[in-house]
């Protein structure tokens, strides 16, 4: 009788243990359930991969949020609030949403802090050059000088109380290309957090944003593209847990004319593509909008100015100059892994900022 009772107890314990293991396995499977998508939004490829029981829902919500963001703030979407502001330039103000107001206020602050190195009212020049269009060309000096007169972020008037925006002069126009992808990374982070996602990443036009680690506990690692190689080549890799990495370079959107490379990052001081000795600038920060804006600002500022910013508290840098030198913030030295295949092509240095 005792043996029978013992056997029953052992059997019951075995069932309980097995059930617990099964429940735990199901829980773990749900916890790390993957979902992914590849979409074309904001005139660029958006790729995301998330892990968690709400991963599928979160992926769809991110896609929807970014599509709504594009409809609201794209220069090139007819009827967007930015399109309405541009069409009303010099005539009247336009009622705008809280999201548009927030981004325009932030953009103006960044433009001011850059000393005008980046200006969101540079759209007339961007449209004239047409570098991302089917017919890029070098405008005449007279045309550039004429359009430069329209570039002035201080002439974008924002009325927070009335929720309106207005460009003061006819012909002026806004382009948020220097901040939109980074701000989108912040949208991605917000939406995924709302869905309880603790692991995943997104690439938004090459801007990387990372949440947590891989389900197996290892870091997500991403390469920084070789600016003088094809899209499969990279100069090194970084882990980006909780960070965004934004890169600006002269290699993705450009055209050649008479042996000269004309890229899409225009200098508001000259109206021509920036020529400060850099061919790639990557900014790593927790703040996606800041990373995106700074990658453009420092690219335009040029090598000497960017080298002074190598170890700021809010961001870190990886720079590539036109003499094939790679400069990495010394704070990244333990994390940055040089690609052995690029060693013979580039010279690498870990440097601090000059104060």
What does this protein structure show overall?
This protein is of the alpha+beta class and 355 residues long. It has nine helices and 18 strands. Strands 1, 2, 6, 7, 10, 13, 14, 15, 16 and 18 form a ten-stranded mixed sheet that branches. The chain is globular, with a radius of gyration of 25 Å. The termini are far apart. The model is unreliable at 16-28 (pLDDT under 50).
SSE series: HEEHHEHHHEEHEEEEEEEEHHEEEEE
End-to-end separation: 84 Å
Q: Give me the Rg, rounded.
A: 25 Å
Number of strands: 18
Q: If you average the pLDDT, what whole number results? A: 91
Residue stretches low in confidence (pLDDT < 50, at least 5 long) are 16-28
**Class based on secondary structure composition and strand pairing:** alpha+beta
C-alpha geometry: globular
- Helix percentage range: 25-40%
Oligomer status: single chain
Residue fraction in strands? 25-35%
| Count of helical regions | 9
Largest sheet: number of strands, sense, barrel closure: 10 strands, mixed
Quick summary:
The protein has 355 residues and is an alpha+beta fold. 34% of the residues lie in helices and 26% in strands.
List the topology elements.
Blueprint: H1 2-31, E1 34-41, E2 44-51, H2 55-73, H3 81-87, E3 94-95, H4 98-113, H5 123-129, H6 141-148, E4 156-159, E5 164-167, H7 180-194, E6 199-204, E7 207-211, E8 221-225, E9 234-239, E10 244-249, E11 254-257, E12 260-263, E13 278-285, H8 288-301, H9 303-307, E14 311-312, E15 315-321, E16 325-329, E17 337-338, E18 347-351
């Amino acid at each position: 009788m005792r043996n029978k009772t013992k056997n029953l107890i052992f059997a019951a314990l075995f069932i309980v243990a097995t059930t617990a293991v099964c429940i735990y396995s199901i829980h773990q499977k749900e916890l790390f359930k993957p979902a992914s998508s590849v979409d074309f939004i904001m005139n660029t490829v958006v790729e995301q991969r998330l892990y968690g029981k709400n991963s599928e829902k979160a992926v769809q919500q991110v896609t929807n949020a970014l599509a709504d963001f594009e409809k609201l703030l794209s220069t090139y979407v007819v009827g967007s609030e930015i399109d309405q502001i541009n069409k009303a330039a010099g005539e009247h103000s336009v009622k705008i949403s809280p999201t548009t107001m927030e981004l325009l206020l932030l953009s103006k602050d960044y433009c001011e802090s850059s000393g005008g190195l980046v200006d969101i009212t540079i759209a007339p020049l961007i449209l004239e050059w047409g570098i991302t269009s089917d017919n890029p060309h070098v405008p005449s000096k007279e045309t550039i000088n004429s359009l430069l007169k329209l570039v002035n972020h201080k002439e974008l008037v924002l009325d927070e109380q009335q929720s309106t925006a207005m460009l003061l002069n006819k012909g002026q126009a806004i382009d948020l290309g220097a901040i939109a992808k980074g701000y989108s990374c912040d949208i991605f982070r917000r939406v995924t957090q709302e869905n309880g996602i603790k692991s995943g990443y997104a690439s938004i036009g090459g801007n990387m944003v990372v949440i947590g680690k891989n389900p197996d506990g290892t870091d997500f690692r991403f390469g920084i593209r070789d600016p003088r190689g094809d899209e499969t080549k990279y100069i090194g890799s970084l882990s980006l847990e909780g960070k965004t990495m934004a890169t600006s370079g002269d290699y993705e959107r450009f055209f050649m004319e008479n042996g000269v490379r004309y890229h899409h990052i225009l200098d508001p001081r000259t109206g021509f593509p920036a020529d400060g000795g850099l061919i790639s600038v990557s900014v790593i920060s927790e703040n996606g909008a800041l990373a995106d804006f700074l990658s453009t600002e420092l690219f335009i500022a040029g090598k000497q100015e960017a080298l002074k910013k190598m170890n700021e508290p809010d961001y870190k840098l990886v720079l590539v100059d036109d003499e094939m030198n790679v400069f990495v913030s010394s704070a990244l030295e333990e994390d940055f892994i040089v690609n052995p295949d690029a060693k013979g092509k580039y010279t690498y240095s870990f440097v601090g900022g000059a104060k």
